[in-house]
Amino acid sequence: MADAAPVVGIIMGSRSDWETMRHAADILAALGIPHETRVVSAHRTPERLYDYAKGAAGRGLQAIIAGAGGAAHLPGMAAAMTRLPVLGVPVESKALSGLDSLLSIVQMPGGVPVATFAIGRPGAINAALFAAALLANADSALADRLDAWRARQTADVAESPE
Ligand code: RP5
To answer: What domains are defined for the chain?
Structure first.
């Protein structure tokens, strides 16, 4: 998989977001989905964001998972510049525990969609699983791997709390 062209891009506003976004990368790796990870800040590196979003579809990406915290404009700005599905992950912020991130990402104007997930680790995990589900519609081998992943999750749920 290391040599395969990435089909999912994971971007984040800061290296400090990696502790959250690594969970998305772990899921994609577990499902054998080629992906790339980049730090792309809407505020600190706007030209890097422009280049990334404008070039994403042409490079063969099929979805972008974008995580950011605070005034989290990254997913929305990426969505403004690509037709690819953008899956937004609100990173938990220090000041407002990620509520700021969530509201910044979810309240997009009609016409520029961002699929918004839960704050923090569960959001990163679910964004990756959602990307996998999108890709699985056109990839039966991936669909089988995703089904198996879900079956293992079900099998791992204990019947008793003790
Ligand atoms: C956002 O500001 C990033 O997505 C990050 O969640 C937050 C804080 O960034 P750092 O100050 O840790 O670089 O742009």
So the answer is: 8-155 (3.40.50.1970)
Q: Which ipTM score applies to this complex?
A: 0.96
- Tell which atom from ligand 1 comes closest to the C-alpha of 13: 4
Pocket of ligand 1 (CB under 6 A): 13-14, 16-17, 41, 68-70, 91
Q: Diameter of the chain by CA atoms? A: 53
Q: Which residue in 45, 43, 54, 56 sits closest to 10, CA to CA?
A: 56
CB of 108 closer than 8 Å to CB of 83: no
Cα(35) to centroid(ligand 1), Å: 22
- pLDDT tens-place string over residues 12-35: 999 999 999 999 999 999 999 999
Alpha helix stretches (DSSP H) within the chain: 18-30, 46-56, 74-80, 99-106, 121-136, 140-155
- d(CA 14, ligand 1 centre) in Å: 5
Q: Which two structure tokens, joined as six digits, stand for 59?
A: 């490079």
Token pair in block for residue 21: 């976004």
Asked whether the predicted pLDDT for residue 3 surpasses 90, the reply is no
pLDDT in tens, 54-72: 999 999 999 999 999 999 9
pTM of the model: 0.97
